[in-house]
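ugh ok fine here u go
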Amino acid sequence: MTYTRQADFGTPESKSTQSVTLSINGRAVTVPAGSTVMRAASEIGTNIPKLCATDSLKQFGSCRLCLVEIDGAPGTPASCTTPVSEGMVVHTQTPKLQKLRKGVMELYISDHPLDCLTCAANGDCELQDQAGAVGLRDVRYGYEGANHLGQAKDHSNPYFDFDSSKCIVCSRCVRACDEVQGTFALTIESRGFGSKVSAGTPVDDFLSSECVSCGACVQACPTATLTEKALVEIGTPERSVVTTCAYCGVGCTFRAEMRGEQLVRMVPWKDGKANRGHSCVKGRFAWGYATHQERITKPMVRASTDQPWQEVSWEEAFAYAASELKRIQGQYGQRSIGGITSSRCTNEETFLVQKLIRAGFGNNNVDTCARVCHSPTGYGLKTTFGTSAGTQDFDSVEHSDVILIIGANPTDGHPVFASRMKKRIREGAKLIVVDPRRIDMVRTPHIEAQYHLPLRPGTNVAVLTAIAHVIVTEGLADEAFVREHCDWDEFQDWSDFVGQAKNSPETLAPVTLVDPQDLRAAARLFATGGNGAIYYGLGVTEHSQGSSTVMAIANLAMATGNIGRPGVGVNPLRGQNNVQGACDMGSFPHELPGYRHISDKATRTLFEQDWGVTLDAEPGLRIPNMLDAAVDGVFKALYVQGEDILQSDPNTKHVAAGLDAMECVIVQDLFLNETANYAHIFLPGSTFLEKDGTFTNAERRIQPVRKVMSPLNGYADWEVTQELARAMGLDWNYTHPSEIMDEIARLTPSFAGVSFRRLDEAGSLQWPANEAAPEGTPVMHVGGFTGGKGKFVVTDYVPTDEKTGPRFPLLLTTGRILSHYNVGAQTRRTANTAWHPEDLLEVHPQDAEDRGIKDGDWTRLASRSGETTLRALVTDRVAPGVVYTTFHHPATQANVVTTDFSDWATNCPEYKVTAVQVTPSNGPSDWQEDYEAQATQSRRIVVVEAAE
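structure:
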């Protein structure tokens, strides 16, 4: 589509259900009560001049450009702050207003450099537009620039510049930082002509400030004061495409603005139902990896991993891959090969990979990183609620009175939703945080949790059981809800269990290390504070009791009646952009799309008739089972699309041994990732900018991904899988991903009403979307549970087998940081490294002192599985006895120390609890040095020059 700026109605939409009718310039208009005059005028296409007003922010009334005349009212009130009233008569354009607006605009222009021809915002500048709107053609006061002497341009931020000489002090950037992002990093200094925007630090630059580079200030700026560097370098966009971000599970909608085949900027789309016009540093700015020089765009093969890569044609690559897979199956058997789907690829691409494995390989050896992170969510919620997904949409948080966050770090992992959460807390909602670290949500400017329960890692079930004990023994359960919606006998069994003295906060305190009085107070607040919503993340699922913890959370929600309406619910915050979709599409070895077991004959028959094949009724191997079987010599080939299991999966040495034992590893990705060190065939992948399809976010929202530019490798990922399937002998003839979605809808009940046409019409749909719910399902379990009655499950606390002791006295837990994403393959190839150039080990000051470690020192981090080295960050954000690190940089390979322990129900790895020791170090470990040497050797590429 042609590039156009999205309509701005000046002030936010009123949510009132009552209407008011007024007259604007002789035209009757009916709007919700509480609307401003400016908003009402915009609704009928009358644009009142404005500078300080924008519909993403509260009305402010400072620029005095939006003046109007109202019959019977004195003066010329600002339309952005004047509410409508019944029968009001408004005039937006009169000689008096014209004169006043010209005078106001003259003052703005007199203090603004008139370098429009060379300004990056030329043609996209609101000051320029409004000068034309008020008819200003001459300025009586000359610009001298004296007021801006000494106000140098700030180029410190990697993505945008700040030029104070062009600032009109409208405060929109400051207000956006406050109201939308919730960081409060900016302020207005001084008064009058000397006033200016400040980043609030002694250095007063954006990079050293508390700014998180979400881009809200840049988007709000009406001039070229805040400008993307890419806009300056590339030029004004000429077309745009609305698509969905490929980073975290929030699923933000963006307008990708293009100039030719070059992406100029990503602008958050106001109509995006997941992000509502907001963004984070990754989605807004960190897209440079798509054209990074390390991107692999040509297929490559080699006979063994000690040889360099050889570039080949696509045809040669497909033929070689198919012949190797067939050879290995012929030699070692039907189940000797398998594949891994990607939580970063589209639903359509993921569906095709599992179809290739089931219909082409003839087995169910398919797995995904979605199981590695969130399979306990699927198991736990399906067991208790009957459906393997979160219950709410993101808008639901606006109705929450008490928010309980457990094992999640929203400001780093899901920042756009965190901003909405913080906004609700500033409006009065109460917050409880259950986390071994003091995450930002515990205390940041203008919000603070009522209770932080800093539990010992691995004791989630004990803490939740203690909370339930308080609710049951103090008579705080919602008995009416439970009797109507849940199995009463199971509830009584559960309440008898949690009510036992052994489950009291006091009895469990030596286990959890949580203050019993704080825990009791938090339990009472959640049970009695109104609408209670629970949000959780990988700190819940990545444990040996991950599934038990999810069921304990579900028990808590049911016991307090917090299910089935806005403002409540159980909400897993998915890590990657399409974790939910990868699960939905049948990426597990035991489940077909739609969470139906492979052993169910009726379901299997449905797919067999559609695909024209006979499916194996036996569940296949999970990733750790594939690796074990490879080491045992019976699993010999693996097709990996868009995952880096060597860096992301636990016990790196075991992963490496499994990959090394295989005869054919096929990696399909953007870069030569860590897994590719052990690959024999490399198929270049495509980015989200280069394909059509859909992602499904954490709120079950299916959203369009639209092709913005041509694939640098020549193929979208779904096309690569299709060509491999053809080479394997399958007669696949898809011409567009919409045809794949039609097949998904045909075979998957929860997707029955989904099509590309419907998504284009609605913007997005939340499954289930079918005949029973044609518009989708924002809130699940309204009026009753999908699976019938809600099921309470007794969740006894079982300590992990991973124990601390004299050799390994500390507990390591891992997580993410705002500027990076997953294994960092994308964000490390952007300017985001300015904020986090390496993984650091957070150590409590007492533990650091005991070991003679100072901030910035190299440390040795060792466990029973392995060791690595990284620099220390001494901080009281972690409790004594707990250390924390991220896993974004392969030089660290944090997972070399994590163990093989996993969730009892799903094999989800126990990343969050590893017994370790930390000691001073002089530099990289032997393993790190060996790994770096192997990686360097493995990434050699021989480029064969074409004959003339």
